[in-house]
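Work Package 3 (structural annotation) set out to generate three-dimensional models for the target panel prioritized at the project kickoff. During this period the team completed the workflow that converts sequence records into discrete structure tokens, so that structures can be stored uniformly alongside our sequence database. As a representative example, we reproduce one entry of 310 residues exactly as it appears in the project archive.
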Amino acid sequence: MLQSVSFTRFIHKPLLFVDEKTRVLVQGVGSQGQFHSKLMREYGTKVVAAIHPKKAGEIIAGMPTFATVKEAVKRTDANASLIFVPAPGAAAAIIESVNAGVGLVVCITEHIPQQDMVKVKALVREKGVDLIGPNCPGLIQPRTRVKMGIIPTNIHTAGKIGIVSRSGTLTYEAAFATTSTGLGQSTVVGIGGDPFAGQLHVDVVKRFAADPRTQGIILIGEIGGTSEEDAAEWIHKNKLTKEKPVVAFIAGATAPPGRRMGHAGAIVSGGKGTAAGKNKALEAAGVRVATHPGKIGQFIFEEMQKLGRV
């Protein structure tokens, strides 16, 4: 008698989330979904389907449209989903993709109710699905020319540095800095700043650590939560900086306690989640910490020089 096997066994799951075999469907094909799906295709991403329950059979912004994710996966072999669905329905859209057998979900939507995300996180953990976001810019992999989200492509070049960031704007600044120094990027992941994000810093750092193309890492964090401290603990435990230099910057050092700064998760409460505490944990792990974002590119270049990788 055959044993039952989880469907996730058959999901295509690249080490760094995406690769040449990534086939993307788009949920939420309003103006933003259509605009960014067009830019993704122009960059080289295989955008194979759109989802709209009332427009199945139509072509929307060059994409064949299906009523459900399940049907789109069956007909197009889509294995990744990009979500622009407005906040009230975004969690349901994530759940639909997870239950349809998609291995990677990138959710751009912000302001999703936290109680909805608690349920989503439990489900993606159970199914073994990678969730990036919500409230994030997405990810880009210059080598394979795959982009999922709203990240601008013109500042990226294929290269050696993996970037993981809670801040969208600082993601772009770090990418531009590494392009300017000639280092380029292996994969850039904007994990978003919500309290119940899918992938956290430590999850992405582990992948960068295992990836031979990623020779250095930039970690950009914010006040609030413990994602950066958790990453620092893993980096220290595994002596990562002996093999791959890590440079970090924590935004929000001057934020007053109790006041949310930008992202929903960027808040210092009960004395926890301070920039000073995160910097201390990272430095103790051997990470070089920048106190100004303009130093990120210089620091990672210098650290790569020390290991003879420039």
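The longest strand covers residues 158-165.
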